[in-house]
Amino acid sequence: MSKRGVKVERNSLSEQPHELNYEAHKEGATAKKVEAAKKSAGSNQRSAVEKKLNK
Q1: Residue 8 included in any domain
Q2: Mean pLDDT across the stretch 26-44?
């Protein structure tokens, strides 16, 4: 596996339930709130989603 692909994967948040649950547990929110924050951010970048969750 190339190093570039791994780095890209770490910075993005997919629709997969285990990734939504991980982010929800990390941020102290629910998976549905993480999904809503992802949609409102208009991006799948972890930093953008975390900013929306913290507002």
Answers
A1: no
A2: 94
Query: Which residue type, as a one-letter code, is found at position 26?
Result: K
The pTM (predicted TM-score) of the whole model is 0.80
Distance CA 48, CA 37 (A): 9
Structural domain range at position 40: 18-54
> How many structural domains comprise the chain?
1
Separation CA 28–CA 43 (nearest Å): 20
The arithmetic mean of pLDDT across residues 24-35, rounded, is 95
Report yes or no: 34 and 49 within 8 Å, Cβ to Cβ: yes
Residue linked to tokens 């770490």 = 10
Residue reference for tokens 């941020």: 27
Q: Is residue 1 part of a domain?
A: no
- Please tell me what DSSP assigns to residue 34: H
**Tokens coding 51:** 């900013």
